[in-house]
Amino acid sequence: MYHDAIIIGTGQAGPAFARRLVAAGWKVAIIERKLFGGTCVNTGCTPTKTLVASAYAAHVTSRAADYGVTISGAVSVDMKLVKAQRRRCGSVAQRPRAVAKDARRMHGL
Asked: How far apart are CA 105 and CA 18, in angstroms?
């Protein structure tokens, strides 16, 4: 099978570059090693990951004394702020499906 270009990775630049090449009439292949959408969407700033990060921060802080760190007062979590952080990252969560849909529409792939 012949391709004019092979794009490695489906992160931010890969699918956009593939779209431009297909629009220019090139036959393009995309190779993704692991999860479609790249690091940002799958293991970076997604709503679930922000919640996990908040929980981890609270856990580590609650064990500060085990590491010789003294914190005066109890550790608490402000869920309003946690949810606000999740919402800030929420728009990214839709990206893998959108990228996959765009790729299926590219006839040159």
From this structure: 11
pLDDT, tens digit, 9 for 90 and up, residues 33-66: 888 887 777 766 677 778 888 999 999 999 999 9
AA letter at 90: G
Residue 40 CA to residue 25 CA, distance in Å, equals 29
Question: Between the CA of residue 40 and those of 1, 46, 50, 69, 73, what are the distances in Å?
Answer: 31, 7, 12, 32, 35
5 band by pLDDT with thresholds 50, 70 and 90? very high
> Residue 16's closest CA among 3, 34, 28?
28
Structure tokens at 15: 């699918």
Distance of CA 12 to the CA centre of its chain: 10
**3-state SS assignment for residue 8:** strand
Distance, in Å, from the CA atom of 29 to the CA atom of 22, rounded to the nearest integer, reads 10
